[in-house]
Design a protein that fits this description.
The complex is a heterodimer.
Chain A: H1 3-12, E1 16-17, H2 23-35, H3 43-49, E2 55-57, E3 60-62, E4 68-70, E5 73-76, H4 79-85, E6 95-100, E7 104-109, E8 114-118, E9 124-128, H5 131-140
Antiparallel strand pairs in A: 1-2, 2-3, 3-6, 4-5, 6-7, 7-8, 8-9
Helix pairs in contact in A: 1-5
Chain B: H1 5-14, E1 22-25, H2 36-49, H3 55-59, H4 65-72, E2 81-85, E3 100-104, H5 105-118, E4 125-128, H6 150-165
Antiparallel strand pairs in B: 1-4, 2-3
Chain lengths: 144, 168
Amino acid sequence: MNKNEFLSLIKSRGATIFATGQLTDINITNTNLQNMRAAMLPSFLQDFYTTSFGITLGSACIFGPKEIERGTKYPLPSITKVNQDMLGNKNLFGKTIFGRNDLFLFAFDTFGNCFMLDNLTLSVLRKYDDPYRAMFDCLIVGKI
Amino acid sequence: MQLNEHSAMERLAALGMDDLPVIAYTPQKCLLDKDWFKKYSQIRREFLESLTDSFEEIAFMNLPQEEFVNLIMGKVLPDNLSIRFRIPLLWGGALDISNMFLCWTFPHAYNMDRFIIEQSDAKTIYLPNPEKKVYLTSHTGGGGAGGNATSDRLTQAAFNTISARGNE
């Protein structure tokens, strides 16, 4: 699955795709993640952030480089904030969380591999070779 | 990190949920059925349909009219609302409506995830266990000034409920 196929598929399911922002926000996020010793943004996510800074579908979401205001709803936290909140968990060493739903968290590692983690212990449940499949699986649970 | 009831309540207060009751639970690792996801989807729908008895709590959420009606009718779960298990399935929780509750995804469900993950290596885990089917903190509840829009009427209904209870 490529980026356009993913966006088209997820849009047809009713996802809210937020606008993109400035390139400097991506660079600042990378620096912050590096300082936390988390995995830096892989190329697929940097490419995705040039199109959108985040997606929500029901209770599922993909986090972006910046906090996203959502009118009367609580803002969507940035990827930096989420990973700061989870800092210190041994199952998360070398990984960065980029998405969540009611059952699972989704993370990538330094090599750009994506993982489905359980939301109780952060242990790996599944590894993905296709990052957009991981993003799709993350979001689709929000609307079952 | 092993917590006790006092430290669990303190941590929840720090996460902005000081009125959330907890239950001490010793996780029992269990395997899920092959068709658990199908059953999970079904029970979520049944839970949504059962929310008609939680009108008051949902009115306090100040949802827009369409989202409010869809939720009360059990049709669609609006954005930023999560259905959670009191005792997680992987730790022996039942796939049953009585084991579920509704809350905001951000900040509450997200912070409940953090609260549980922080205890993941402990023997006894303190799990969020709200009294009712819908969890809404006292910080986010409350009435409004009233008005003509449907959302305002819902706000007013919520305010009237508070007044009737003498909790203004």
